[in-house]
Design a protein that fits this description.
The chain is an alpha/beta fold. Helix 3 links the parallel strand 2 and strand 3. It has a 5-stranded mixed beta sheet.
């Protein structure tokens, strides 16, 4: 831990009082297979650490007050890890858009790109157990998008790029859910990010804990309607991939292909229309166990959601109630109805 701390990486689950429930002495139930906190990386300034160029921070109430019941934050500031100091002159990207150089804004003759990359590289291997990463916006090191690159004349280019740390992170872990903290204020983007984080965690718990073709097939079965809500064609294609996989073969390649394509399929929020189609599909499993008048009531709620009159939680909560009471094992196992803890209230915002 001492070596990691010197590199700027901190396990916030063990060093910050805000991130544990000290009243009960127990971790919050994250509705995951292991009921443990999920490891999520985060820009250190978002946890209130004074690592910004001006010696300040960008403490995120959303991350600390709402998500901390479920996440064990692992914070990192690449600029501090690189030894740039706090406070420090602002940094900017200059030169080639595809391979920009990092310089201080008050002395662009000094290229510090290699210094930052040397600080990032030793940390990368320690991020393998993360299920998500939350980044600071507008940072030449941590920004996810819209980062300016300046010409030699000092004017910014029209096209923009990602921060250098973010680029390295995405290259090493292309399937890792990544989002900027500011974008989490958008309800659909926040729901999509948290869905991907919990799904990424569930895959590692359910499949990677004991890799087998059976485990992959069971995961695909459980996430059938999650996939259908986001990408119906990819749901069918991934099913074919598993069906064509021979028993006894080396599964590592199949696992990697499935995982990458699964996470890519979830990368954009599901449409209202797709949610309605999935809800109606699930309702079909209750046609023999729930009376017609109740089913018609649920159809009416689904159509009201389609028209934008109620939020997604309204038909989904009622449908889940009847599925849990009268549905068979198959439909009750579907993660679509409970892809993340209900206490997050995400479907109330959709």
């Amino acid at each position: 831990m001492d070596i990691i701390a010197r590199q700027g990486l901190t396990d916030m689950g063990t060093t910050t009082d805000n991130l544990s429930d000290k009243s009960s002495g127990k971790k919050a139930d994250a509705n995951t297979a292991s009921n443990t906190l999920i490891n999520v990386g985060i820009s250190a300034c978002l946890l209130g650490q004074p690592v910004r160029y001006n010696g300040g921070h960008s403490r995120s109430k959303l991350c600390l007050n709402e998500h901390n019941r479920y996440f064990n934050y692992r914070s990192f500031c690449p600029e501090v890890a690189a030894g740039f100091g706090t406070p420090r002159p602002t940094l900017r990207l200059v030169g080639d858009l595809k391979a920009p150089r990092l310089v201080f804004s008050d002395d662009q003759s000094k290229d510090v790109t290699a210094q930052l990359n040397q600080a990032i590289e030793p940390v990368m291997d320690s991020l393998a157990d993360l299920d998500g990463y939350i980044l600071m916006k507008n940072s030449p090191s941590c920004g996810l998008e819209r980062i300016k690159v300046y010409n030699d004349n000092g004017n910014p280019m029209t096209d923009k790029t990602r921060g250098l740390f973010t680029t390295a992170l995405q290259q090493r872990y292309p399937s890792l859910p990544i989002e900027e903290e500011a974008r989490l204020n958008d309800a659909r983007l926040r729901e999509n990010f948290l869905l991907r984080v919990f799904s990424h965690h569930q895959f590692r718990q359910q499949v990677d804990s004991q890799l087998s073709l059976k485990a992959l097939m069971h995961f695909h079965r459980d996430y059938k309607y999650v996939l259908m809500a986001h990408h119906q064609r990819e749901y069918r294609a991934l099913g074919q991939l598993l069906a064509q996989t021979q028993r006894g073969c080396d599964l590592s390649g199949v696992r990697n292909q499935y995982h990458h394509r699964f996470m890519a399929a979830l990368s954009k929020p599901a449409s209202r229309e797709n949610h309605c189609n999935v809800l109606l599909h699930i309702l079909g499993y209750l046609k023999r166990s729930v009376e017609s008048s109740v089913r018609q009531e649920m159809v009416g709620l689904i159509n009201r959601y389609r028209r934008g009159e109620v939020n997604l939680a309204t038909p989904m909560t009622l449908l889940d109630h009847y599925v849990q009471r009268f549905g068979g094992d198959y439909i009750r196992s579907q993660r679509y109805l409970q892809p993340y803890p209900a206490e997050l209230g995400l479907n109330n915002l959709l």
